[in-house]
Design goal:
It is built from one helix and ten strands. By secondary structure, it is mainly beta.
Length: 154
């Protein structure tokens, strides 16, 4: 039996002010072929999973806090207990709009890395409205900051 423990999974901090800890896949002791899953902590007032898309179908389940979810041309507030389906290929972004940390669980399939992780750490994430479609009107701006100390190659 393999048991993972969130308290022992260091995770990775991204320039967009979030900590991502792999629950299934990646650096987790639990590996599956058909899906990956993780726990994300967004810092208050702007911590973010920036505007991106991917081939995998995905869901986000908000555990705590208040977030802004952008999905395609839509923008809505999400709070603890809500879940959103993200179809394959659709641009999406989640931003913490509250004064406290926001946390959520993601699950996508099939398993494997998604390109935006590497792009963020390398400072090459495509920019909304320039390289990729614009964010929905009124959305929190996309974070495309370069990591402190320069690009991180993984």
């Amino acid at each position: 039996m393999i048991i993972g423990d969130l308290k022992k999974i260091a995770g990775r901090t991204y320039p967009a002010r979030r900590l991502t800890q792999n629950l299934v896949g990646g650096a987790s002791p639990v590996q599956c072929d058909n899906f990956a899953m993780g726990f994300v902590t967004l810092e208050p007032n702007g911590g973010q999973v920036p505007w991106h898309n991917q081939e995998q179908e995905e869901v986000y389940f908000v555990v705590s806090g208040k977030t802004e979810m952008c999905l395609g041309e839509e923008r809505q507030v999400m709070e603890a207990g809500q879940i959103v389906h993200i179809p394959s290929g659709v641009y999406h972004q989640m931003t913490n709009i509250g004064d406290e940390e926001a946390t959520f669980i993601y699950c996508y399939g099939p398993a494997g890395d998604v390109a935006h992780w590497k792009e963020e750490l390398a400072g090459t994430l495509p920019k909304a409205g320039v390289d990729v479609p614009e964010l929905p009107e009124g959305a929190a701006p996309q974070c495309t900051d370069m990591p402190e100390g320069g690009p991180i190659i993984i």
